[in-house]
Each structure stands twice: as structure tokens, then as C-alpha cells.
Amino acid sequence: MKQLLIGLDYCHSKGIIHRDVKPSNIVIDEVKNDLNLIDFGLSEFYVPGKERPLKVASRPYKGPELLVGNRFYDYSLDIWAVGCILGALVIFQ
User: Fold this and answer.
1) Which residue ranges make up each domain of the chain?
2) Which residue, 61, 50, 49, is CA-closest to 18?
3) Residue 8, Cα to own-chain centre: how many angstroms?
4) Which of 3, 42, 49, 66 sits CB 3.0–4.6 Å from 20 for a disulfide?
5) Residues with catalytic annotation?
6) pTM over the 0.85 mark
7) Quick check: 85 and 22 in contact, CB under 8 A?
8) Given a cut of 90, is residue 93 above it in pLDDT?
């Protein structure tokens, strides 16, 4: 989880919202003990106040703002997905 948050922090510091954080977009190298976030096909540069499409992210990892139709979302969308992943890890371990 720490490596995922560090990776997202780097993306966010460069102005990029991933918008599709989910377990299948995380690759772990068990030899190097390294985590990589992949599939930036839905990513976009964040511009405050810009309307964005709602058809991003997989349903189990969608933030509440997408579910209620709010087109003005930000980096918190990625953080919500990380929380969903963490919750699944805690429940299914």
C-alpha cells in the first residue's frame, strides 16, 4: 500500500489523475519487492474546474462523486480506489 501511495503521489505531483486504480492495474515484482502502477489509458491532466467524463474507473473502485454524477472530480478519485483496495485486503486476508 505504501508503494502504491508513493506512486500515486508522484503522478499527482505531476498533475496526472490515473482514474482507473484497481488491483488488475497493479503489477508486483516479487523478486525486487517492487510495485508498479500500469494502464494509464484513462489518465488525464488535472485542470481545476474542468468537467470530466463519468465513464472512468471500474464499478467496485468508483468514487462516490462519479456515482452521483459529479463531473468535477479531482485526485481524491484515485485515493478512494486505494481505500477500496485496502478494504478488500483487510476483509479477505
Assistant:
1) 2-91
2) 61
3) 7
4) 42
5) 20
6) yes
7) yes
8) no
Report the amino acid identity of residue 21: V
Q: Centre a 10 Å sphere on the Cβ of residue 5 and count the other Cβ atoms it contains.
A: 13
Q: pLDDT of 10-64, one tens digit each?
A: 999 999 999 999 999 999 999 999 999 999 999 999 999 999 999 999 999 999 9
3-class SS letters over the chain: CHHHHHHHHHHHHCCEECCCCCHHHEEEECCCCEEEECCCCCCEECCCCCCCCCCCCCHHHCCHHHHCCCCCCCCHHHHHHHHHHHHHHHHCC
**From its phi and psi, is residue 22 left (phi > 0), alpha (psi between -120 and 50) or beta?**
beta
CATH topology for 2-91?
Transferase(Phosphotransferase); domain 1 (1.10.510)
CA-CA-CA-CA torsion sign (53, 68, 5, 84): negative
The C-alpha atoms of residue 52 and residue 86 are separated, in whole angstroms, by: 26
Query: Contact at 8 Å (CB) between 78 and 18?
Result: yes
